[in-house]
Design brief:
Shape: globular
Structural class: mainly alpha
Number of strands: 3
Radius of gyration: 15 Å
Oligomer: single chain
Order of helices and strands: HEEEHHH
Length: 130
């Protein structure tokens, strides 16, 4: 008998790949600069089910890689993270020095420019996903 969890997980990856491709097509249609596309990695590292604040994703401008953590997350949530991180990709294309100088794990309150970069990604990432 086939393990149902494995089947569901593979189906989830297929769905994510499909919708990521569709979103990239949309970004290009509206001339949202994302090319060259980052390498997109779907990370299956287990996230604890009882944790509210889990890893969701990140964009690495040095390696032009976008990582999405997919364990214990709904596809819509993962795609929203994808759009957020693609805004960071766009920020890096439009202003590479400004973006790269503010990539950090510092609290937003300590870096007003980082807060602005993140605010833009939250706003536009959500708008792109709608």
């Amino acid at each position: 008998m086939v393990n149902r969890n494995i089947m569901e997980h593979e189906s989830k990856i297929d769905m994510l790949n499909y919708w990521i491709e569709e979103l990239v097509k949309y970004f290009r249609e509206i001339e949202f600069e994302v090319d060259p596309l980052p390498k997109i990695r779907l990370d299956q590292t287990p996230n604890p089910e009882d944790e509210l604040f889990i890893k969701t994703g990140y964009y690495d401008p040095v390696n032009n890689e976008l990582v999405l953590f997919i364990d214990n997350r709904h596809i819509k949530d993962i795609l929203r993270t994808f759009c957020h991180e693609m805004v960071h990709r766009n920020q890096n294309i439009v202003d590479p020095d400004g973006f790269s100088n503010h990539v950090s794990d510092k609290p937003l309150a300590e870096d007003p420019e980082l807060k602005e970069i993140e605010s833009e990604a939250f706003l536009y990432g959500n708008l792109l996903f709608r």
